[in-house]
Structures are given as C-alpha cells and as structure tokens.
Amino acid sequence: MAGAGLVVVVTGASRGIGYSIGRELAVRMPGASLYLTTREAQNIQALEATLRRDIGVSSGNVKFRMMDLKDKRSIAKFVDVVKRKHNRLDILVNNAAVYHKPPSSVHQACETLPLYSKEVEEIIKTNYLGLRAVTESFIPCLAQNSRIINISSHLAQLAMFSTSDVASAKLADSFSNPNLSIAMLDSLVKSYLASIKSGNWSSAGWPDCAYSVSKVAVNSYTRILQAQLTNSHPKLFVSVNAVCPGTHHSKMRQAREDTISTQDSADMISYLATMRLEGVGDCSVPQTAVPKGEVLWHDLSCTRSSARDSDQGVQSAQ
Prior knowledge:
The chain is α/β, with parallel strands linked by helices. The protein contains ten helices and seven strands. 45% of the residues lie in helices and 12% in strands.
C-alpha cells in the first residue's frame, strides 16, 4: 500500500489549506501514519468524522491530535507520542499559524499598543518560535529522504522593507545575509518584539504587519536549517523548503483572480512533499533537481530573495 511505514505530520490541519494538505496526503499515502494537529481538542472527533466522509477508507490511518504552538509542553507531549510509536518522521508540513490584521496606521497602533503588542507576541510565538520548536524536536528522528515544508506567504517578501530608509534597508540585508545563523535570526526577532513593546518599531525600520515579519523569519530559518541539516546529516538527504500556498485568506485583501483554489494548492504542496518517495511521488525528478532550502511560489518556482528586487516580487506573489 502506498506510503506503508511512512510517518507524516501536518500542523494546523483543522481547516483551510492545512486540512486540504492532510486530506490530499492521506489519499496519496493510504498506508502511511498521518497526524494532523489542531489547537482545539474538543473538535477532534468532529474533524475525524468529517475526514471519513470526505475520503472514506483512506482516512483509516489518520489521527487528529491536539497541539498548541504557543505551549512548549503541548509541543513536547505531541512529539513524544509520535516518537514513542514510530521513532521516525518522513514528512513534516508546518502550516499552523496565526494572523491578526495589522493596524491601518502607526498612530492607530500606538493608541492601542497593549493590544497590538499582545497580538504581535502571539504571532511570533506561533508562526516562528512554535514552528522552530516543533521542527527541532523532530530532527533526531528524521528518516532518510525526509522533507520539511514550511508554509510561507505572499506577504513575506523582503520588498516590504524600504530601501530608501537606512534602518529598514539594514533589516532587509540582515534577513538575506547568507551567513545568517539561527542565533542571529533569533536576535533580529527579539529586537522586533522589543521595538513593538517600546512603540518605536516604525522608526526602527520594521513594517506594521507582524505576520509578514514572522513569515520572513520562517523563510530565513528554512534556508539556515537546510544548510545545517546538509552539513550535520549529509546521508539523510533531508530537504527543507518554504512554500507560498497562493490561496485566498478571508482576513487578507487579495483579488480572487490572483489566488488559486485550496485544492490546487494542496495538490502542489503534496506533490513537493512526496517528490522522489518510492511508490508515492514523482520519482522521475533527479535527486539533484529536488528543491532544497528554497522559498517557492505555489507553482514551485523560486521567489525573489533580495529586497533589491523592488516591488516585482510582491506583485507576482499576489
């Protein structure tokens, strides 16, 4: 049976693109053990019933589990369950994320600074720090030819940093620095949180949208982690990539014609997740052609990684 013996985890899979990716992978890999996570423990039975209605017997090896990326104990408990039962992980799709609409102006944000600061902290804790915690907890049990896919966003372009502002341009250079380490990236994120609490993020060069900052950090982390795993586990052939799903988000301003359907996006992300998996994915792709350490659009073309590429990267992302 396709996927027999393989273990898959998709975070943030209770709805939207996360649920669609989990559903698609379950259909493609009926023999695999799939774990789909949700923050809402009380919804698990209903989610499993919905999945059974959607895909029938293909849902037999799928389990929904509770995990809150803001809670280190919750992460540790879930990871321990997977490790104890399987002691391996073949596919990790980091989809779980939080989005809060940014303020319409710096003035508005300053007027409601305590609330804005709380929302920013939740976004960073979930989208970047939580993603990192889950990923790094699973590294010791990554299987050969495993893959990690971090869901990014069309809002995560370095072009959001202004090249005409010295502080903003410096931040863009820092995120795109090829020698950026995780410690340096963490320092950038901490400086961002500190600027929010003090109310001077704008003069420090940061954009108003915390979600964008969190996803830019995820993109940089993707590149750093790929380099680290290639050096520390060269025989595992782990691939780490970030993908902009291209789907419509109800809380974001996007023209419908600039997006693709959730199912089309799930198909493409599942294609990437199973690429060169024997008996499951496309094995005609040479090993050397498998993307590694890339930030990809939903059609699997590479995004522009430099802030100097002006607005074209942002326009093509929408």
